[in-house]
Amino acid sequence: MRTLRDAAIGETVTVARLLGEGALKRRIMDMGITKGAEVYIRKVAPLGDPIEVKVRGYELSLRKEDAQMIEIHPAG
Fold first, then answer.
1. pTM of the predicted structure, to 2 decimals
2. DSSP β-bridge partners for residue 52
């Protein structure tokens, strides 16, 4: 399955599930990235890390390492 790390700039995706456990998973969920949430990929830093996304009406920067733990599918 695709992860948020694989999403293209300008793409809107839906979170399918979160991988990982413990504090890291909780931190991602606290940022509003939960199953079913729509995420818009705004831009990627020049060196590829971090990724800037828009989720639940606000902008958020994620490390690619964290984005790898978020499984997605196309929005809709």
1. 0.88
2. 43, 61
Q: 9 is in which domain, residue-wise?
A: 4-74
Regions of the chain where pLDDT drops below 50:
none
Within 1-76, where are the H helices? 22-30, 64-67
Interatomic CA distance for residues 60 and 38, integer angstroms: 13
Contact 62, 50 (CB under 8 A): yes
- Using the structure block, give the residue that is written with the tokens 């990627």: 44
Are 71 and 6 a contacting pair, CB within 8 Å?
no
Q: Supply the pLDDT for residue 75.
A: 81
CATH code at position 54: 2.30.30.90
Task: List all residues 6 or more positions away from 33 whose beta carbon is below 8 Å from its beta carbon.
Answer: 15, 18, 39, 55, 60, 70
